[in-house]
Design the sequence.
């Protein structure tokens, strides 16, 4: 199977056992609005990867994971490397 520049597999590891909800977001071009990744909202901590499709091969993207413990209003973010 050939590489497809319009698809990326985002993987993560959650080490904080108190985190119960994950939300993956992306930003096009390293600036502007953060948008939810389709299928990446309200994920269980047992999920450790998500395939993001329909990307533009000529653009760059950043990803961040919003991780929350029960009752937390403000997310803790973990960002991907720029690229």
Sequence:
């Amino acid at each position: 199977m050939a590489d497809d520049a319009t698809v990326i597999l985002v993987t993560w590891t959650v080490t904080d056992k108190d985190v119960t909800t994950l939300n993956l977001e992306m930003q096009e071009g390293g600036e502007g609005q953060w948008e939810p990744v389709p299928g990446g909202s309200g994920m269980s901590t047992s999920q450790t990867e998500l395939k993001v499709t329909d990307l533009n091969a000529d653009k760059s993207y950043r990803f961040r994971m919003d991780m929350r413990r029960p009752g937390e209003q403000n997310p803790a973010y973990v960002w991907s490397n720029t690229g």
User: Anything to note?
Assistant: The radius of gyration is 13 Å.
